[in-house]
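Reviewers asked in the last cycle whether our approach scales beyond single polypeptides. To address this, we selected a multi-component target totalling 172 residues and predicted its structure end to end. The input consisted of the following lines:
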Amino acid sequence: MVDVMLKPEILDPQGQAVLSALPRLGVSGIVGVRQGKRFELELADGVEADGAVLARVEHLAATLLANPVIEDYQVRVEEPAAEAAG
Amino acid sequence: MVDVMLKPEILDPQGQAVLSALPRLGVSGIVGVRQGKRFELELADGVEADGAVLARVEHLAATLLANPVIEDYQVRVEEPAAEAAG
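The resulting structure, written as structure tokens, was:
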């Protein structure tokens, strides 16, 4: 799982749009909204999320998934069972 | 924190694009990529992420942040300290 968020100092118009829609929906108590992206990477059967694989995913995140100039990213491992809902 | 992902049966062209770029980057062992959105909602000082607040955020996720026809969403609480990286 790779989470990508705009850096805090970068303006986030999508988050701002959500934030400004909240009063219209009668929601209070929320003072900030930031929108980002998430990527679920599914590993092949038998491939363990060990250090080497995570290093590869980290490299991927920095080169393909995120733009390190304006975005922060975070790689984390999630078990398949922990997925989904809605 | 609200995570929004396309339902598994919905085609995800962005994820497909990432997946098809992997061999070019020399990355193997990844068999699936799905791209989604994540929203960080910051609560006002003194507002606890209790049941009532989570119910409001859940409602928000279903009406504003996600399209329940094609997307699944998941609301979870994250402590501010657990944030960031990159």
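Confidence is low (pLDDT under 50) at residues 82-86 of chain B. We regard this as preliminary and will revisit it once experimental data from Aim 1 are available.
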